[in-house]
Amino acid sequence: MKGHRCRCGFKTTAKRLRCPRCGKRMSLTYWPNHGIVLAYVKLGVVPVNYEFPMDLLMLEVKTGPKIACWTDTPFSVGDDVTFVQLGDTYICSPRYDIKEIMELPDDSEDDGGESGKGELRSES
Questions:
Q1: How many C-beta neighbours within 10 Å does residue 94 have?
Q2: Please, which contacts does 18-26 make with residues 24 or more away whose CB atoms are closer than 8 Å?
Q3: Are 30 and 2 spatial neighbours (Cβ–Cβ below 8 Å)?
Q4: Taking Cα atoms as reference points, which of 122, 30, 50 lies closest to residue 91?
Q5: Of the candidates 60, 82, 58, 53, the residue with the CA atom closest to the CA atom of residue 69
Q6: pLDDT digits (tens, 9 = 90+) for 64-115
Q7: pTM for this entry
Q8: Three-class SS string for the chain?
Q9: What is the dihedral of CA 68, 72, 75, 77, to 10 degrees?
């Protein structure tokens, strides 16, 4: 995630040349695209340009700013999430460790058919 940081400690994802806190020049910086859920709100009304109800999360990004992001996945305070920026908004999803990804169940079924899986057959 791209943003700006000031020597006084102020951090933001907004494009700013000067710090609103101290007035000094801000520098461009990058933060990881994952964070911890600090709070969430379950919305009962569908936001504009969305097809289904979304929840709004407040995230703390390690060494970065706090950001708000949209999700359709239920989360709890303290959950680890990853996010992507789409225009001026952020969309969140669960963050998986590589070990967790390797342990996720495979949705494909082994039908032994034309998928290339199954036993080999030879015609004599």
A1: 13
A2: none
A3: yes
A4: 50
A5: 58
A6: 899 999 888 888 999 999 988 888 888 888 887 555 555 656 655 555 544 4
A7: 0.66
A8: CEEEECCCCCEECCCCCECCCCCCECEEEECCCEEEEEEEEECCCCCCCCCCCCEEEEEEECCCCEEEEEECCCCCCCCEEEEEEECCEEEEEECCCHHHHHHCCCCCCCCCCCCCCCCCCCCC
A9: 20
In order of start, what are the domains of the chain with their CATH numbers?
A: 1-30 (no CATH), 33-98 (2.40.50.840)
- Residue 28 tokens, joined: 């461009």
Both structure tokens of 60: 């703390």
Cα–Cα dist 53/103, whole Å: 30
Hunting for tokens 């996010």 — which residue is that?
83
